[in-house]
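User:
Can I borrow your eye for a moment on a structure tokenisation matter? Would you put together a sequence-and-structure record for a protein of your own picking? Please set it down just below, with no commentary around it:
AI:
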Amino acid sequence: MPGPEVDLTLLVDAAREAGKIALSYWKNDPKSWEKADDAGPVTEADLAVNDALQGMLRGVRPDYGWLSEESEADPSRLDARHCFIIDPIDGTRAFIAGQEGFSHSLAVARGDRIVAAVVHLPVRNVTYTAFEDGPALRNGEPIRPSHASLPGATVLTYRAAAEPGFWRGHHVPDFKREFRPSLAWRLCLAAEGRFDAALSLRAAWEWDIAAGSLIAERAGAVVSDRRGERMKFNSPKAMVDGLIVAGSMLHGQLLDALEPEQPPN
């Protein structure tokens, strides 16, 4: 059975090929449509990348399970020792708009833990990588999270997360809110300290955060769901209950400031 470092090499090669495919559609008016149940947009590029990745990855690891945003649910993944967790294009709205901030998010889970991960931004030519017990790298160079704390930290999150109802005593901590279209990229930006934290109080799909969670963890950030619990992957629902990713001090401050019983969002 190949180890995480070998799987990482496979993921990196696949992510770069995915980038080539995505760039052939980017700014070329790809066909797009809305998914059912208000699940967001999808394009012909998402599907082409998904098909290519499935062929590249499962062609080499046929015994690995497969969980992807753009594939039909396959319950057999739950019985697999290893599982690929893939978002072919994370940030599809940005991709449709011709913006640079979309990524490919590729991970391998062993049991309920991520052991190899890649987040690749093809337009920016930036690749984040990590594997179990190895370093987190950005284009081959080690990364570390910031040592920021409240007040004044810069947090990557969506607008609604700064509403008073999510915070103890309806007191929103003093942080500056920023946003980037790819959730996978947001985790990596927190991992490398360009921003101080990534926060989501909504349930997150595993394919959006699997790769970024390991990259942030191996960089030295504290990574948890919104309640401070360890994230678990390849679950039946394929969702994680929000996320807090930050250096240890800021992570603790954000967790302590959150209202334990969250309002609907």
Summary: The chain has a mean pLDDT of 96. The chain has six helices and 16 strands. Residues 4-141 form a domain with the Fructose-1,6-Bisphosphatase; Chain A, domain 1 fold (CATH 3.30.540.10). The chain has two domains: 4-141, 153-257.
